[in-house]
Amino acid sequence: GAVVSQHPSRVICKSGTSVKIECRSLDFQATTMFWYRQFPKQSLMLMATSNEGSKATYEQGVEKDKFLINHASLTLSTLTVTSAHPEDSSFYICSGPRPSTDTQYFGPGTRLTVL
Amino acid sequence: SQQGEEDPQALSIQEGENATMNCSYKTSINNLQWYRQNSGRGLVHLILIRSNEREKHSGRLRVTLDTSKKSSSLLITASRAADTASYFCATDITGTASKLTFGTGTRLQVTL
Question: What is the predicted pLDDT for the residue at B40?
Fold first, then answer.
């Protein structure tokens, strides 16, 4: 069935560097994809909605200049954490609408650790 | 604040017992969905119940929805060790598979 992949699954970086996370829909097209952040033992918080061919929509409190989202094709959305700091360490999960349903497929997540 | 609050936060039961998790939300919804997350992994959709439905079954899962109380429950019957995971409810206001608002989650531990 249709799935969503993320790459990398884990990344460790130094403070001040930028990290790019890819989210791909493998056998369905997604004009919209969603990026979530999850801190340990907490729930998922929606960060932004990625829109193919247009600007992403960010949730209140999420800095658009820090979390850059690009949705260049119907199967790929990327999230770039710019000038990462230790407080950005988290589990980042993307999702895409499951075709012909009201549910979403979730990627396996990316564990970001900023030293 | 988050849309959904789940109760209990953690639940530990023995294999074969039933597990019940509750979710409360604050605004009107189109549907409510339950997802499962194994530790450090992505989420897997379990079941969706629409606002005009009161109960739904899928295998060992039973979901109820009470829109007057803005609450839902997930019952897992005859639990197995493999059911150990975190379970989240998520509300969809628009019904377009768009913005889901997740509850706080219940961590279920099923022991042998």
Answer: 83
